Amino acid sequence: MLIREDIPPRDRILKLFDQPVADAAPVRGCPFIDAAAEFPDPESAVHSYAREQKLRMVQLIVALVAELGCHEPLSLAEQLATLADGAASRAMVLDEADYGRHARAAAEVLLDQALTRKS
């Protein structure tokens, strides 16, 4: 979703918090968090791959928030990624597919504040 150029940057970011595919039960959460938990050794290939994907996600968000005019894109990207990861984990534990709505509301505030703040 983050790389789709047919969707405006802000909308791509906010789609991180959308409900997964309808009728996807039970809620699975983030496969990379699941993989890292199953293979906790940071040197394992699985854990390393999960870490790479999480770092890639942040870099994609950095590019989007920079495009939107954020003057501290890495900080905002890390905050948004943390919200997305937390929402995915809570959605899985609570088996509540639309849990991301809470994180989306917080993400909207973060984006609004970061993009209206003067450099």
Topology:
Layout: H1 9-14, H2 31-38, H3 45-67, H4 73-94, H5 100-116
Helix pairs in contact: 2-3, 3-4, 4-5
Beta content comes to under 5%
Shape: globular
pLDDT average, as an integer? 92
Biggest pleated-sheet summary: none
What structural class should be given to the helix and strand makeup? Answer: mainly alpha
> How many strand segments?
0
The CA-CA distance between the termini, in Å, is 29 Å
Helix-strand sequence: HHHHH
* Uncertain regions spanning at least 5 consecutive residues: none
Helix content percent band: 55-70%
Rg, Cα atoms, Å = 15 Å
Number of helices: 5
Could you name the key traits of this structure?
single chain; 119 residues; mainly alpha; 5 helices; globular
In short:
The protein is an all-alpha fold and 119 residues long.
Care to describe what's here?
With 119 residues, this protein is mostly helical. Helix 2 (31-38) packs antiparallel against helix 3, helix 3 crosses helix 4 (73-94) and helix 4 (73-94) packs antiparallel against helix 5 (100-116). The chain contains five helices and no strands. The protein starts with 8 loop residues before the first helix and ends with a helix. The mean pLDDT is 92.
